[in-house]
Design the sequence.
């Protein structure tokens, strides 16, 4: 095997080689939205987890903020082909929120204020891979980016990181979400370029 | 940004599928019953697909996704699509 050329091992974060296939680098933060931006008063905001047995756990805004938070720095990959690297967030790990939930479910359906949904395997929400994020770049999460809180699941295309998140249903059977039911890939791994059904 | 456009932006995408201009077609919202021509819908295009909503209740009237080899169309938000002919 040929020796590595100098620089090969040093990841140049601005080079396209660090991006999933078909993506381009952007430094701004494009706003994508399939509808009007929901405005949720914090005193009425809640996040729920409902198990396949119908058992519901609820967190108010104050209860969410009282949980231990993490500050992940992650890369974002949108299916519309832009990627934004090294974004700074603060939020609560789904491991914390789902840790003592009694479930045999393999799937999750995420629901947002405003009606958006997205689905994914439950295991993709666990083991430090997903957060309910409420701060971005040191500030409160702006509503156009999903505030007061959004799902952040950076290892999948960004449509899975549901903005204005309201709750998660744990399901025995997979149920396709808003874009997954209309031609987009059910899983959406950017590194395997799973944009559309059949990819 | 997140603002919507009017339904005339659906002219091209729907013509690609059906071969006719559907902006004058009539819809009726399954959410609130409001009747509207396609051209009067509120259309969000800064998204992975095109989402057309009722101006009365924000219910999704139709959705369109163009993949490299297919068009996916969801019309569940309208009770019918009245297409003027002749
Ligand atoms: Zn309506």
Sequence:
């Amino acid at each position: 095997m040929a020796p590595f050329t100098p620089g090969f091992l040093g990841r140049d974060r601005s080079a396209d080689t660090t991006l999933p296939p078909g993506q381009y680098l952007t430094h701004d933060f494009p706003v994508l939205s399939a509808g009007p931006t929901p405005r949720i008063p914090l005193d009425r905001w809640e996040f729920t987890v409902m198990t396949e047995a119908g058992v519901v756990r609820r967190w108010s805004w104050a209860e969410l903020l009282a949980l231990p938070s993490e500050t992940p720095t992650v890369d974002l990959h949108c299916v519309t082909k832009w990627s934004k690297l090294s974004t700074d967030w603060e939020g609560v790990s789904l491991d914390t929120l789902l840790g003592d939930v009694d479930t045999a479910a393999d799937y999750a359906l995420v629901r947002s204020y405003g009606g958006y949904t997205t689905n994914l395997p439950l295991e993709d929400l666990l083991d430090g891979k997903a957060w309910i994020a409420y701060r971005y770049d040191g500030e409160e999460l702006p509503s156009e980016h999903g505030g007061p809180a959004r799902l952040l699941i950076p290892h999948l295309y960004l449509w899975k990181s549901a903005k204005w998140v309201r709750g998660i249903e744990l399901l025995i059977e997979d149920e396709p979400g808003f874009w997954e039911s209309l031609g987009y890939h059910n899983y959406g791994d950017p590194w395997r370029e799973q944009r559309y059904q059949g990819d | 940004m997140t603002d919507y456009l009017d339904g005339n932006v659906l002219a091209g995408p729907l013509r690609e599928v059906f071969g006719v201009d559907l902006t004058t077609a009539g819809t009726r919202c399954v959410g609130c019953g409001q009747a509207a021509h396609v051209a009067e819908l509120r259309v969000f295009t800064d998204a992975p697909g095109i989402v057309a909503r009722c101006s009365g209740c924000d219910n999704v009237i139709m959705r369109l996704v163009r993949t490299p080899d297919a068009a996916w169309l969801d019309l569940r938000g309208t009770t019918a699509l009245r297409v003027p002919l002749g």
In short: DSSP finds two helices and eleven strands in chain A. The longest strand of chain A covers residues 82-93. The mean pLDDT of chain A is 93.
